[in-house]
Structure formats: structure tokens, C-alpha cells
Design brief:
By secondary structure, this protein is an alpha+beta fold. Helices cover 26% and strands 33% of the residues. The protein has 2 helices and 11 strands, in the order αββββββαβββββ.
Length: 180
């Protein structure tokens, strides 16, 4: 017995089956299409690549100075990370960019968790900073020099940061953050 697939009866059966299957699987297909991208781990930048050059007031490069980088993605990590590097003979120090892989849904969940723990003091997203460890005789003399030797990044801006920082000699003969 052969079927005539062009007959009106088979066309109606075919149409009914298509609509039944479509309705049954439409919601799961849409849910997978919406939720799957939320579960795919993507590269997340936590700290940019830094290239920092340290000079004194005269523009002379300051070699052999320690610079510390700290970074953390508050939505994904409970602890910060850190690394200290020493400037070379040209006063330059380079730190690579820092990244982790995470699905978007984990970042959202982590941010909600942070607000649940710390309320208004919560932090979400990446944060990175560089700080110069002042050698003897160098520091910040007054408010105008405050924070010049510390750089911060919180997810906005370029993935590579190049900066020259002037490190001041303490006028009082002291050392450190307040030249004391």
C-alpha cells in the first residue's frame, strides 16, 4: 500500500504533528537558547596590563624601586592577589593583564552574594591597584602629591595602561607616604 504524501489527509497529519512537536519543544529550545550563553565561561579582565615608569622631579629614571600590584574580582573571588616587581634601569616595571574565566551567571550570583553579606559596603566587579614602595628619602610631601604614586583600575577603561609617575624626594628628610 503506497501513501500519497501529497494528499490532503497526509498534509493535515503532517501539519498537526509539526505543531504538536513545535509546541512541546518550543519552550525548552527557547530556554536553552537563553540560558546557555549565561553558562559559557568567558574571559573576564580583572586587572589591566600595566607599564609604569618611575622618575624623580628632574625626569631621571628610578631603577630598583618596588612596585606592588593587587587585584581581585569581588563578584568571583573572596581574596585578593598580589605581586611585587622591581623597576629596571630605565625606571620601568611591567605587569601582565590578569584574567579569569567565568560564566555571566556566576558574576551575577557573586554580586548578589556580596550585597547579601555587606549591604551598602558591598563591592562587585574587578578592582586593581599599583602602589610604589618608597625608598629612603622619597615620599609624599603634601596633599598635592598624595596618591600620585598609586594607580587604580575598576573595570572601566583600557586593558593596557601606560603611565609615568614622578616620585618626590622628601623635603623633611623623612620617608614614605607622609614623609615622616
Amino acid at each position: 500500500m503506497s501513501r500519497d504524501l501529497e494528499s490532503p489527509v497526509w498534509q493535515r497529519v503532517d501539519t498537526m504533528l509539526f505543531h504538536m512537536i513545535s509546541r512541546r519543544f518550543l519552550l525548552p529550545i527557547v530556554m536553552v537558547a537563553v540560558l546557555l550563553p549565561l553558562l559559557i565561561p568567558l574571559r573576564v579582565l580583572v586587572a589591566p596590563g600595566w607599564k609604569l615608569t618611575l622618575t624623580d622631579e628632574a625626569g631621571k629614571p628610578l631603577g630598583q624601586m618596588a612596585v606592588t600590584e593587587t587585584w581581585q574580582h569581588y563578584s568571583l573571588e573572596d581574596q585578593s592577589h598580589g605581586e611585587t616587581r622591581i623597576t629596571d634601569g630605565t625606571g620601568t616595571v611591567v605587569f601582565p593583564d590578569r584574567a579569569i574565566h567565568s560564566p555571566l551567571i556566576w558574576r551575577f550570583k557573586g554580586c548578589v552574594r556580596q550585597f547579601g553579606r555587606y549591604l551598602f559596603h558591598a563591592s562587585c566587579g574587578p578592582y586593581a591597584r599599583l602602589g610604589v614602595q618608597y625608598p629612603k628619602g622619597y615620599g609624599q610631601n603634601d596633599v598635592r602629591e598624595f596618591m600620585q604614586a598609586e594607580l587604580q583600575w575598576s573595570g572601566g577603561g583600557p586593558s593596557r595602561v601606560t603611565k609615568t609617575v614622578v616620585v618626590h624626594k622628601c623635603k623633611s628628610g623623612g620617608t614614605g607616604l607622609t614623609c615622616s
